[in-house]
Amino acid sequence: QIEADSLCARLTVPESRQRPGQRSIDLRVIVLPATGKTVQADPIVLLAGGPGQAAAELGPYFFTVFPELRKKRDILPIDQRGTGESNSMACEQELKPLQNFELSGVTATEYYIDALKQCLNSLDADPAQYTTPIAMDDLEYIREILGYPQLNLFGISYGTRAALVYLRRHPTSVRSMILDAVVPMDMLVPEHIATDAESAFATVIADCQAQPACDQAFPDIISKLETAVN
């Protein structure tokens, strides 16, 4: 829910800066004004995760959890191009069959690939123009339009990579960065999700079994999980 005192706008930019006379897209820009009496000139910009999460959906909730951050600085939850209301590239295809555990891995993969191809063909967009560097150039343009001297970047998950890309491309525009759950530049984001999740779960189980109180409260948790899944 966007707050009543928020400033909302749509900023039109070329989809391709190399072909500015062709297709244009709108970027959803929101400013949550600082609530205190003494306001600093540099705002906090929320860079959401995913990639694909819309910052405008996450921002208002996130900064109600940290109200102190908003007392002295404006908050900017901006939908990165391709997300939310900035020419979203979200797939509308039905993916529920992927949640059917009776499907074989091969069948699920084939269905997933076919659904993604359908999505790609239905997009009103050139996917080559929705990369992180291009999106961070959008952010620099927004900073210039709004007249902020510098930005404080708050990146979460994939947003940490976006922050690093912005810093590399526009170093003098960055005052500070907070990187939460860092995604390094050399990481292929989805490649290790399954193995990382399995490793994390195994670590939690091992920690629980090593603590008598936890082990007593949750006995045979692995076999119970396998029974529930099967």
From TrEMBL:
Q: Which residues form the AB hydrolase-1 domain?
A: 43-187
Q: Decide whether keyword Metal-binding is in the record.
A: no
Q: Pfam families from the entry?
A: Abhydrolase_1 (PF00561)
Q: Kindly state a single biological-process term from the GO annotations of this entry.
A: proteolysis
Q: What class of enzyme is it?
A: hydrolase
Cellular component per GO? cytoplasm
What Enzyme Commission number(s) apply to this enzyme?
3.4.11.5
Q: By its UniProt entry, which InterPro entries does this protein fall under?
A: AB_hydrolase_1 (IPR000073), AB_hydrolase_fold (IPR029058), Peptidase_S33 (IPR002410), Pro_iminopeptidase (IPR005944)
Going by the UniProt record, its keywords in alphabetical order are: Aminopeptidase, Cytoplasm, Hydrolase, Protease
| Alphabetized GO MF terms | aminopeptidase activity
Protein's cellular compartments: Cytoplasm
Catalytic activity annotated for this protein? Release of N-terminal proline from a peptide
Q: To which protein family does this belong?
A: Belongs to the peptidase S33 family.
Q: What is this protein called?
A: prolyl aminopeptidase
Which source organism does the UniProt entry give? Answer: marine metagenome
